[in-house]
Design goal:
10 helices; mainly alpha; two-stranded antiparallel sheet; 1% strand
Length: 278
């Protein structure tokens, strides 16, 4: 039986293989790495920004998605998630399937950003709460259209939000576990063995992708919990916690893809990085 580190370090050598190997100094690769690093920072920062904003007198909501309804933090939530979605749509990898998968994940991120979840996630808050893009009347009150709740874009919109969230997190987990872990022999093998830096990256990718899948499973299992359990769950803001962990795992993986961690970079990449910072 192989050690667990060997299992985590392995990656597909058959699927998602690039039709050609990019040159070491290919400018397109450099641009993609810089964008991957930037989107990793944004994904990692999003839960932290929301937590800091909530600690500054705003409401700590039940989930990251519920910050859509925050008067100040709502546009920040929408903007940062839309940036991630825009990057994923614009992303161009080395295989057409990864491009299509990234585009679908990007569309899912936009869906999470603009299609709100149900409720406002802050039942104990005082003062007036309204949707980020709500239309107000002359008295500053949300306009109710055809008896519909001002928190809704349209009836049952939260179902689309849930589908979009499952789509984006599921695709990102698969992207990390399959595409980022793939082994391109011309780059990642020496004498038939995976080079040490690629092994380390693959272990990190495996842990990040596994963390996202675990968070998805826990959030899905929550739907079958009892009412008393859900009250305790929301008191501890566990939906926010698991969504934050999933975003941090995604951010760390893309920071590694963007070659932000020098010790995980291949020798030729380290030399190139040193040349670039001089």
């Amino acid at each position: 039986m192989k050690p667990i580190t060997d299992i985590l370090a392995n990656g597909t050598r058959r699927h998602f293989q690039p039709p050609r190997t990019r040159a070491e100094n290919d400018p397109e690769s450099g641009m993609q790495a810089r964008l991957a690093k930037l989107v990793g920072f944004v994904a990692f920062a999003l839960p932290i920004v929301l937590m800091l904003g909530a600690a500054n007198g705003s409401c700590m909501r039940d989930s990251i998605s519920h910050f859509y309804y925050a008067q100040f933090l709502g546009p920040i939530f929408v903007g940062m998630l839309s940036f991630i979605g825009g990057f994923l749509i614009a992303y161009r990898g080395e295989h057409w399937l990864e491009n299509r998968g990234a585009t679908l994940a990007g569309l899912g991120a936009f869906g999470v950003a603009v299609l709100p979840t149900t409720g406002n996630g802050c039942e104990m808050a005082t003062g007036r709460l309204f949707r980020t893009f709500a239309t107000l009347d002359e008295n500053g009150l949300p306009i109710i259209v055809e008896g519909r709740n001002a928190f809704e874009l349209f009836s049952r919109v939260h179902h689309l939000h849930t589908i979009a969230a499952a789509l984006v997190f599921g695709l990102l987990a698969l992207f990390i576990l399959v595409v980022l872990r793939r082994v391109v022999p011309e780059r990642h093998e020496h004498n038939g063995e995976i080079i040490p830096t690629k092994r380390k990256r693959n272990v990190l990718y495996s842990l990040c992708g596994g963390a996202i899948l675990l968070c998805i499973a826990l959030l899905g299992a929550k739907q079958m919990a009892s009412e008393a359990f859900l009250v305790k769950w929301n008191t501890l803001n566990l939906t926010f916690v698991f969504e934050a962990i999933a975003l941090w795992a995604f951010g760390i993986a893309w920071l590694a893809k963007g070659r932000q961690f020098e010790e995980l970079n291949d020798p030729s990449e380290r030399d190139q990085w040193r040349r670039n910072v001089r």
